[in-house]
Amino acid sequence: MAVESDVMEAAGPYDRARALSAFKFGDVTFYWITRACAISVLLILGGIIVSLIIGAWPAIQEYGAAFLWTQRWAPSADPPVLGALGPVYGTLITSVIAMAIAIPVGLGIAVFLTEICPLWLRRPIGLAIELLAGIPSIIYGMWGFFVLGPFLANNFQPFMISMFDGVPVLGTIFAGPPSYLSLFNASLILAIMVLPFITAISVDVFKTVPPVLKEAAYGVGCTTWEVVRNVVVPYTRVGVIGGIMLALGRALGETMAVTFIIGNSFKIQSSIFAPGTTISAAIASEFAESDGLHQSGLILLGLLLFVLTFCVLAAARLMLMRLEKKAGN
Amino acid sequence: MNPIYASRRRNDVIIRMLCLAAALFGVTWLALILFTLFYNGLAGLNLAVFAQDTPPPGSTDGGLRNAIIGSIIMTVIGVGIGAPLGLFAGTYLAEYGKHDKLTSVIRFINDILLSAPSIIIGLFIYGAIVVPMGGFSAFAGCLALAVIVIPVVVRTTEDMLGLVPNPLREAASALGLPRSLVIRRIAYRAARAGLITGVLLATARVAGETAPLLFTALSNQFFSLDLTKTMANLPVTINNFVQSPYVYWKQLAWSGALLITLTVLALNIGARILGAERTSK
Asked: Which regions in chain B score pLDDT beneath 70?
């Protein structure tokens, strides 16, 4: 016994110090590894901005601000004439139409899921909507190209064209001829794609409404619609708008689905059944075969898209953060 | 009945019907897309799809072997690079820097990267890797996928570690465990299901990504395992085949689309089941 304790006394302090220093070393290393990884997130954003600016620099010098309002896109001319107006117009118009379809439907589904749907049906429908968000965008593009485009061109578009024929403004917007590849087809696909985002966030923020508020409203005899309109929506307005902005950010940058069915025409046309292009579609379809100033112009388009989505997404996050604070209090 | 009551009830019924219609509208699209995929994809799905490489133009035999293997390699490497990085970054946000100014900035930037257009990531990797390295390579494709994986994993890791009750950490600290071991042995273990869910969701997200590969990994008609050269992958192969004039290529594109979609949906459902188990415990 005595010998053993002697051994322990001899070894103890030494091992203890070593173990402690190993712990300390491990602790500091782990801290700095995690910190470095966290900071790398910032570096990625910085890298994206810097590499886009470097890539776009020749085009910025060549075209300057006129890039924004030039419509002509002639990369093979000598010197190449490049203008962003066509793609920017296409990006904005498809996103606006997509949101006009997706917002009411997405909110409708959210109301259905939170207020109307029987409990046992909630999970399957919620899951179906979430899976819609999981389908890769190239599948949407392919489906739009082979199925939705022909269907719209053969059935929906002729109907709209003949219905609004001769009506002043609408007649121009819904002008013929029907086309497999058009701004409207792209918008509809985009609407289906962003629908799950609007629904998911709306369901989440609708759940933050304190049940006692809703119960009080039901208690004084409100109908479901009145509860939604007068209690749920006012309470969650900021969050719902944040969700919509998030979906808008997605719609602005969506690439593959749009590239297949928009037709890649840089000409701006008044009819939404005419082909067009978006920033991302233009990059996706031309970048691999581009060089020199043409490539730089495409990267400049990418920079424009990044700035646009950055602003929209930042606004969305700020709004959602405001709601989180409110829910936290 | 009082006319006000009648009109209120009528409005309510109309709105309920509209909401029901909206839900049906949403579910219908999923059903339609899945139906078309199975209808067109199953017909061409046979052993040759897995056993043979992509056919040259005009040929009517061949499969997707090189594309399938290339996709698996690039997804695995992409997730292999992005997931640990995201995991550590998320750990910092949740464990060390909870009340840091830096943390709120990183969280904000991460949320923006989460929804940044994937084609921009492609442009970034093209400028940062492809141009300096002097050519398209599978490795650049992996990095592009990793950049997409990182924000997804950061987000879920932070959320999941946030759910681990603090008394667990306090008990471990009271026993004299150093901070890093508290995180690795206690917090990670308690949040394990959630962390795996995050990685699965990130994998599902990149498995079908096309835009960032278009000008990083490009595609390759032949079988290749060389990370420094172009590599075939399913999404870009589908992209090329859909727009081709050959019937057989389109058939292969449908089969490939069915494969990707089933993989992605399986990953999504798996992640959800795992997540549901955790919350029910």
From this structure: 1, 277-281
pLDDT category at A1 given cuts 50, 70, 90 is: very low
Question: Is residue A52 over pLDDT 90?
Answer: yes
**Could B264 and A104 be called an inter-chain contact, meaning their C-beta atoms sit closer than 8 Å?**
no
From residue A327, alpha-carbon distances to A208, A209, B279 in Å are 7, 9, 21
Kindly report the nearest CA distance between residue B204 and chain A, in angstroms.
7
- Please judge whether B211 and A309 are an interchain contact, meaning their C-beta atoms are less than 8 angstroms apart: no
Give contacts of B132 with chain A, Cβ < 8 Å: none
**DSSP for A73-132, written as a single string:** -BTTSSS-B--SHHHHHHHHHHHHHHHHHHHHHHHHHHHIIIIIS-HHHHHHHHHHHHHH
* Interchain CB distance below 8 Å, A128 and B239: no
Q: What is the ipTM of this complex?
A: 0.89
Q: Token digits for B264?
A: 């992605």
Q: How close, in Å, is residue B213 to chain A by CA atoms? A: 10
Q: Report which secondary-structure segment, H or E, holds B192.
A: helix B192-207
**Interchain contact, A134 vs B204, CB within 8 Å:** yes
d(CA A36, CA A51): 21
Asked if B96 and A252 come within 8 Å (Cβ–Cβ), the reply is no
pLDDT digits (tens, 9 = 90+) for A278-325: 999 999 988 888 888 899 999 999 999 999 999 999 988 888 888 777
**Measured between CA atoms, how close is A111 to chain B, in angstroms?**
7
H or E stretch at B149: helix B138-163
